[in-house]
Design brief:
β6 and β7 form a beta hairpin. With about 200 residues, this protein is α+β, with helices and mostly antiparallel strands. The longest helix is centred in the middle third of the chain and has 10 residues. A five-stranded mixed sheet has the order 1-2-3-4-5, covered by helices on one side. Strands 6-7-8-9 form a four-stranded antiparallel sheet. The two termini are about 30 Å apart. About 25% of the residues lie in helices and about 20% in strands. The chain is elongated.
């Protein structure tokens, strides 16, 4: 298995089907931080390491999945500082392959995630609830239009998915709740593709 440089990510992106989820596409598109690995013996398949997920997306053609090795995946995860790893098939076609590859691996378990999307931004610019909390665009806090005393929580959550807050401002969208001049909650786009 070899790692692709960021300039080479498009090699794999061009081979993906339309049903691949947004997370690996966002990384392959260069919008979100991650790494990409391919096996020259299995063209059209690859592993996309997501910094935000702390795990892998397996992409491409499941019929060429001979390159998958739990030990190789674990080694990359350790290199990234993880003590555990999440592995997702980018399409449902990967389910039987993942069951076969990981069935005998200690601690491996199969679970499902449901992803919901919206085509429009339906939140108003500022809302106030009965507890004195405000919900404001994260961008307003980052550029200083809304001033808060404490925003470390918000910044740390953004940096789990984005290289920098500047990248988020350019490509992302999100809202935060503020109470007593502190950011108390966030909801934001962790991955962006075809913006």
């Amino acid at each position: 298995m070899r790692e692709l440089s960021k300039e080479q990510f498009t090699e794999l992106n061009s081979q993906l089907s339309a049903s691949v989820s947004i997370e690996p596409r966002a990384i392959l598109d260069g919008n979100n931080p991650g790494r990409v690995f391919i096996d020259p013996e299995a063209p059209g398949c690859g592993l996309v390491w997501s910094h935000g997920l702390g795990g892998f997306y397996i992409v491409g053609t499941p019929q060429q999945a001979d390159f998958l090795s739990p030990d190789k995946l674990a080694a990359i995860a350790v290199e990234e500082g993880s003590t555990w790893v999440e592995i997702c098939g980018a399409t449902p076609d990967w389910e039987p392959v993942m069951q076969q590859v990981f069935s005998g691996f200690p601690g491996a378990e199969l679970s499902w995630q449901h992803v919901y999307t919206t085509a429009t931004n339906t939140l108003s610019a500022v809302t106030v609830d009965g507890n004195g909390s405000q919900v404001v665009p994260i961008a307003d806090v980052l550029v200083g239009r809304v001033v808060v005393k404490e925003r470390d929580f918000m910044n740390s959550k953004l940096l789990e998915f984005w290289r920098s807050t500047e990248d988020f401002l350019e490509l992302g969208i999100g809202w935060c709740s503020i109470q007593d001049d502190k950011v108390t909650g966030v909801c934001f786009s962790g991955f962006v593709y075809e913006r």
